[in-house]
Specification:
Blueprint lengths: L11 E7 L5 H14 L11 E7 L5 E2 L5 E2 L3 E2 L10 E5 L11 H12 L4 E4 L2 H7 L7 E3 L5 H7 L4 E3 L4 E4 L2 E4 L4 H13 L2 H10 L24 H12 L7 H8 L3 H12 L3 H19 L4 H7 L5 H12 L3 H6 L1 H4 L19
Parallel strand pairs: 1-2, 1-6, 2-5, 6-7, 7-11, 8-9
Antiparallel strand pairs: 3-4, 10-11
Helix pairs in contact: 1-5, 1-6, 5-6, 8-9, 10-12, 11-12
Length: 350
């Protein structure tokens, strides 16, 4: 039985456009935030929030991990005006996962009717494909920054925030940031207490601002040498156990000297210096965005002990990790509410 069929008009109605092989985590984080804010307790009654899962023909949507979401409803069954937002959930980037003509047409129809569009993970790629991101900033994960700028060189990419609101287009880097975005919407449509309720049940301390930095910078777009790009990728995936320059060169099938020359030519520094700086920046991010101890952070960033981490950190940032931890709240960037102006005024029922 569909518990949403006879529900009164919800204060927040969201349609999920599930692209082939979408990533499960951001989708699940977003929809469960809505579910938990929808009523008192944890009974999934769509009182304050309503959500629908959509696919071109109503067939089940398959995520990148093989799980299927069913039932889905065909686009033809749901008018875009039913929704306060359409959330496009993307995932793998290949021909099989691209948005089809029916999806593009549905998104274009929603945009024409003034329905705000949200792109999760690689969902913004479909919005760009539909011609709906012209002169708009587009948030993308640091991991997919190169994919975005290679495919769409005219887009305005943002890879240093969790999510970006640009008028009636909202783009999110994906992952756990989807919960932050969902909580942000819930707070504005239903109330802060309901957003906090969702996060607390999900064991999340609190919502991060959209302009909170992503944990890693987008570096690879600056690099032309494919071997150096692969080296950067390996370093990014092994922050807590960084490979030596010799081990990294072996993984890439080149000599240590070739690797060092490539990094120096492309980035102006050695592989070991790049690795250290990246891990220190990640440590800085953890100090600002988590409650972990300095001991835990130093281990997470691949340093042998606290003393080594503290010494390198102070040399890099001219302040100790403990000082940063004490001042974290004061040094967080201010909210960018000017980016959000006008979005909610478009929805007349608010």
């Amino acid at each position: 039985m569909d518990t949403q069929l006879d529900a009164p008009r919800a204060r927040l109605s969201v349609g999920f456009v599930l692209l082939p092989r979408f990533t499960m985590l951001p989708f699940a984080a977003f929809v469960d935030c809505l579910r938990l804010a929808a009523d008192e307790g944890d009974t999934s009654r769509p009182v304050q929030c309503r959500w629908r899962f959509l696919s071109p023909d109503g067939r089940p949507a398959t995520a990148s991990n093989g799980a299927q979401i069913a039932p889905c409803e065909p686009y033809a069954q749901r008018a875009v005006e039913e929704f306060d937002y359409l959330v496009v959930c993307g995932g793998l980037l290949d021909d099989k996962a691209a948005a089809d003509a029916a999806t593009i047409a549905y998104l274009q129809r929603a945009a024409a009717r003034g329905v705000p569009l949200i792109g999760l993970c690689t969902g913004p790629f479909a919005l760009i494909q539909a011609g709906l991101m012209t002169n708009r900033r587009c948030c993308v994960s640091w991991y997919h920054y190169k994919d975005l700028t290679t495919r769409y060189p005219d887009v305005m990419p943002v890879a240093d925030r969790l999510f970006v609101v640009d008028g009636d287009r909202i783009t999110c880097s994906g992952g756990t940031a989807a919960a932050d975005l969902a909580a942000w919407l819930i707070e504005r449509h239903i109330g802060r207490a309901w957003a906090q309720k969702s996060l607390h049940i999900m064991l999340i301390d609190g919502a991060r601002r959209g302009n909170t930095a992503q944990p890693q910078p987008a570096v690879q777009d600056q690099v032309q040498d494919n071997r150096v790009r692969r080296g950067i990728h390996i370093i990014e995936q092994h922050l807590n156990d960084p490979p030596s320059t010799t081990a990294l060169a072996d993984m890439l099938g080149i000599s240590k000297r070739q690797l060092e020359r490539g990094f120096m030519r492309e980035l102006g520094m050695s592989p070991s210096t790049f690795s250290r700086d990246l891990r220190l920046r990640y440590g800085l991010w953890l100090l600002h965005n988590t409650q972990r101890s300095i001991t835990e952070i130093s281990a997470e960033c691949g340093f042998a002990d606290n003393a080594h981490f503290t010494r390198q950190f102070k040399r890099q940032f001219d302040r100790s990790p403990s000082h940063i931890a004490r001042q974290a709240d004061e040094t967080m960037p201010p909210p960018a509410d000017e980016d959000l102006a006008g979005l909610f005024s478009r929805r007349s029922h608010l």
